Amino acid sequence: MSKVQEWLESGEYLPSFLRDFHDQMDLFKYLDEVRERSVKKNGGPYMASLTFSDAQIYTIDIFLWVMARHGYTLQRSRNGLCFSDLSDTIARSNKSRSDSAVALLNNFFSKGDPA
Questions:
Q1: Based on C-alpha coordinates, what's the Rg of the chain?
Q2: pTM confidence score
Q3: For the residues of 16-47, what is the DSSP string, one character each?
Q4: How many separate domains does the chain show?
Q5: Whose CA is closest to 32, among 64, 58, 63, 54?
């Protein structure tokens, strides 16, 4: 096996926050929320059939892998600007989804048994 193939299979070509499958899912769920807001704001069926898991598979397993195979990797900007913290953004998104799910369940169970 070539050194490049070993490197690819190790996943080291990905930024550390994208090496875990569940962390990838959190990011792509957030990206899906951004896509949905864009649809609401701009109208139209912008990538309406695209699921977060389809986007995750395409981006991680195909796009970034092919780019890494050819020597390109995703990296954080070295520009000295004050960027948003991706971990904080994803944590807020996860909390919002969790809070929504809890509220939905509380609403469902508070109605009682109709029988």
A1: 19
A2: 0.76
A3: GGGSSHHHHHHHHHHHHHHHHHHHHHH-S-TT
A4: 1
A5: 54
C-alpha 56/C-alpha 107 separation (Å) is: 32
Q: What is the pLDDT of residues 84-105, one digit of tens each?
A: 999 999 999 999 989 988 888 8
Query: Which domain does 10 fall in, by range?
Result: 3-75
* Residue 45 backbone dihedrals phi, psi, to 5 degrees: -90, 50
Q: Are 13 and 70 in contact (CB under 8 A)?
A: no
The reply to whether 37 falls in a domain is yes
Tokens encoding 56: 């995750």
From CA 31, how far away is CA 54, in angstroms rounded?
A: 12
CB 28 within 8 A of CB 52: yes
Residue 96 is assigned to a structural domain of this protein = no
98 falls within a domain:
no
Residue 112 has pLDDT above 70, yes or no: no
